[in-house]
Every structure is written in structure tokens, then in C-alpha cells.
Amino acid sequence: MDIADATFVVTDLETTGTTPDDDRIMEIGAVKVRDGAVVDRFQQLVNPQQSVPGRITKMTGITTGMVFEAPPADEVLPDYRAFLGDGILVAHNVSFDGSFLDAELQRMGDETLPNETLCTVRLARRLLPGLDSKGLSRLAQFYDIDVEGRHRALGDAEATSVVLRRFVSQLAFEHEVETVEALLRFQHQSYQTVREVPGHIESIRDEVLPDVPDEPGVYVMKNRSGTPLYIGKAKRLPDRLRSHFTAVESSGARKRKMLQKVRSVDWTTTATELEAILLESRRIKAEKPRYNRAQRRYYNRPFIRLDTAHEYPTVSWTRRLEADGAEYYGPVRNTEQAEMVVDVVGRFFQLRECDDERLHLGQRCLYADMDRCTVPCETKDAEAYATVVERVRAFLTGQDQSVLGTMWDRMQRASDNLNFEKAAELRDTLEQLERILEKQRVAAAPVRQHNAALVHQAPDRAGRVDVMLVRFGRFEESIACAAPPSPEERDSLLERCRSVFDVEADPPETFSKRDATEIRLLSHWVYAHRDELTAVRWTPRTSPADLADAIAGRVQGQPQQSA
DNA sequence: CATCTAATGTAGCGAACTGG
DNA sequence: CCAGTTCGCTACATTAGATG
What we know:
- By secondary structure, the protein is of the alpha+beta class.
- It folds into 4 domains: 3-194, 2-Layer Sandwich (Nucleotidyltransferase, domain 5), CATH 3.30.420; 199-287, GIY-YIG endonuclease, CATH 3.40.1440; 303-443, no CATH class; 450-555, no CATH class.
- The chain has 23 helices and 15 strands.
- The strands form 4 sheets. Strands 3-2-1-4-5 form a 5-stranded mixed beta sheet, sandwiched between helices. It has a 4-stranded antiparallel beta sheet with strand order 14-13-12-15, with helices on both faces.
- A hairpin with a 2-residue loop joins strand 2 (25-34) and strand 3.
- The chain is elongated.
- The model is unreliable at 249-253 and 558-563 (pLDDT under 50).
- The structure holds a DNA duplex.
- DNA polymerase III is a complex, multichain enzyme responsible for most of the replicative synthesis in bacteria. The epsilon subunit contain the editing function and is a proofreading 3'-5' exonuclease.
- One of its GO terms (molecular function) is DNA-directed DNA polymerase activity.
- It holds the Pfam family GIY-YIG.
- Residues 401-436 form the UVR domain.
């Protein structure tokens, strides 16, 4: 039914209290509205058959004396029912008025009201979410409605009918609500499907975002009680944050749910993006915000292990980084990749694949006959074996690309021989391997011996250079400076190099899960920016001053021998 | 394959408002 | 004060996935 054809009976009751079972109706007021116009009015005092409490008289002005001579409910209600007809019962908090009407009808032994009901409080909550109060007084003030006899039944009913008309027109304009059915449904819709851009989002957009510094960093969105909802990192905080708070309507359900709860945004600036990535990772794992799905826990990624503590080293993979004299490379993505690397090394390099017992017993195994081993068990030729190890090292650090070349040839041959299945398999392996080795190439050292300053010049940040200091494979600190660096920046660079690259410093005993995760994040970032990066390597023979000079040289863009 | 952890879904309770 | 509604939070159960 069209809203214009419907009859609304806007009703207000004055009662002696708030409990329908114990308290009674003492006045009924109602206005009949059709097509936006008041067509009829109803007003009647009712004898509640009990005295009117003082606080109620104070609020409504209705005294026990006034209702003493009025007819009781069982005489008034039939008249009201006739007035109501099959119109829609409208009230401000209709469950209140409805339950009093039903309670009186029950006392009379009459049927309760079958009419549809419409609640203007429910509409107000959905249509005016930003308003501080949805009480009738506040709405009257908001719409500038003159109420003749506030807290008298007819006065409040008149005011409510004006509010109703405002709501109906707002619903037509903003929510395409044209029919009575849609109108009645709307009052039961959940807030979030109704609300547009909530007020608190607007205030964050307008008041918080202008103060965000143009730097990399980590931001935290918090709810009303300060609990973190989401932690994120940004290359540039203002850009990232703005993207969260604009086009809110088009975002997915999960994000809308979060934005509904956000009341404040906090941030920590960092010198560089990489530092922000690492800080973000730590904070997500420590605080586990509800809306962060990724990076909630530390994973034990596999590392490739070259057991150089052994006289005749072997290659294997492990999820633990120990201080056992072995060289560790990686990490790689998963078990499958780790096994693939170990397998490729086994097939292309003549390392032994026997266990120590067999080695010492000098038991030649089938790998010797396959020419996959230098057979140290028989020859005891440590020197020949060491050259193989050196070649494996060159392969694992991404320096020796010949294996990739060989694999490429084999793939071509398989393809030429119409063995496409094998060719495809080789292609997949090759692609993964290239990625893994490319990550190693920049570090060019096993994890523990990765000591370097990474100089990053982002193309979209002219005049600015980031320097990352890596010691024992772990990110230590980063410095952002101008290109070329000012004298002060050079001094501070030297100072940082001194503290990070202390020759006396002992390598860490073990690497924690956190270290392993951060090594992965570091290698990932390095890989992603490999074309914009130069690495200045540090060895125990490099003095901090030389290192700082070499870094400064790269910052100015003059290629220099690595230190 | 058994076990444990993390992610996701659900129920229930408290807080905040509305009416006289 | 009471009753009703809704949201946010907590606790708990269920499910999916990782681990050894």
C-alpha cells in the first residue's frame, strides 16, 4: 500500500507509572494522519482507579482530582478503538503505549489490538543516528516543533505526528521507502544496514587525518575502550589512513563492521618502511587485534642448512636456526620448497648423502655409482670435497647461476621432445628456485654472516634515501636521510654503524621464532625492492668509518667498491 | 593419524537509552 | 524506579589448519 493511502493514528498515553501490570492509563491522546495531514483528533482523561503519584503529577500536571470524575478505561477504550479503526498505531516508543493498551483491554476481557504498529523512536535511531538523544523533547527541539502541552497526551501525540511526517519524507528521499510495507520493515532493520557514514568516521576524517605526519609508520585503530581493532603499516601514513576512511560505503562487510567501532586512531612513525613492517608484525602478534587476519602468529619457516661444522658437509633443511657452526639459508616458503632445494642440490652437486656411520665405515653407496657423490668415504679427499662445498655455497647464495641454466636447457629439451608434462614441472621448479635464489643473491651470505648496510633509493621519493643496517642476518636499525646526506646525517650514520657493527659483538646463540619471522620479512622486502637497492657489505675488517663512507658514497649515487 | 592452536561463530550479559 | 531494544564484549563451542 502506498504511504499516502495509509491511516496513521499517532497515539500518546499518560500513565501512573511504567509497569503495565501495576500502573494504569490516565489519559489518551491521538491524532489521525492521512497523506501527511491531520484529519481527526481524540483526547480523553481516564480514571486510573488509583491515585496519581506526586512525581507523575509534577511531570504531567495531571492530578488525582482531575481524573476522579473521568470515565474509567473500560468506557473510554471502546471509543478509542473506534477512533483507531484499522489504522496503524504510531507512538514514540510504541511498545510502551501498546503494552498499556493491551493490559487495559485484558482487564476488560477484550481482545488485544491487532493493528500494525510503528515506533518513532526506532525510526529516529535509524534516521538520526548522530543525534545525542532520541527522546521526544530532543526531536521537537531538533525539528523546531512547538509543543502545546508537553507531557500531556494530545500535545505529545501532535508533536509525534509532526516527527512522523518528517521521517516519512526523509525515508522517501534517502531510502526509497514508498510503501507501508517497506516503512514497517524499515523500523526493524539493523542499524548498520541503514546508517550511512557514521559521525565518528567523519570526525576522524576531519580532525585526525590532517595531523598525521607524512612518514612511514604503524597505525592502530581503536574502539571506544581503547582496545586495538586493527594494526597496519604504511609507507606513508597519511595516504594509507585516508584510504581507510574514504569510500567507506563501498567497503566489505567485515571492514564496515570494524569502521563502525573505530573511535580513535594512533600511530607510531618509523624511520623507514621496513622498520614499519617489522614493528607491525610484532604488534599484531602481541596484541592480536580482532580485524587483523594475517600475521597473527609466528611460523617456523624452513631454512636450508649446510652443515659446515662437519668435515664433509651435507645439505638438509630445518625449522630451527642453531649456533652450531652450520650455514643457514632462507627461509623458504614451506616444506615442499625446502625439499625441492635439497633435492636440486643433491642432483647437481656431488655432496655425500650417506649418514655418518656409513661414511666412517667407508661403505660406498648407490649415489657413488650414480656419480652424485665425490665418494669421500673411500677417497678421504677433503680438499676435493671442499671445492664441491664451495660450489654449493655459490649456488645457495645466488652467485652461481649455472644450475638454473642447466635446468633451463633440460626444460627446453623436454619441451622439444614433446614431453610437456615434464617441461611444465621443470618450469615450476625453475620459477620457484629463481625466486628463492634471487632473495639470497642480495644478501649473498648465509643468515648468520649477513652483515650489511642496505641503501634504498625509492623512485617516488626523490632526495630521500633509507639505510638499513643488518647484523647477523637480523635487522638492527634504519636511518632515513637526505641525498646527499648533510654533515650531521653523516655523523649520525657513523655513530649508528659503530654501535651496530661492533667487532667484539658475539653472534646470537639461537634465533627465536620471532627472529626467523623477521628474517623472512626482511628477505621478502629486499626481494621486492631488489632493483632499487644496493648492499654495502661489512666484514670484521671493515672499520665503521669506512662503512659509513661507503654508505654515504652510495647515497650520493656514486658507485663505489663495496667495503 | 592424533594432537594442539588459531580462526570463526554463537549465546548471554551488561550498558545505554526510550517511555511515565 | 520498570520493560524493551540494541550494541559491544566475553566466554564458550565448533571448525579449520598446522604440527610432529
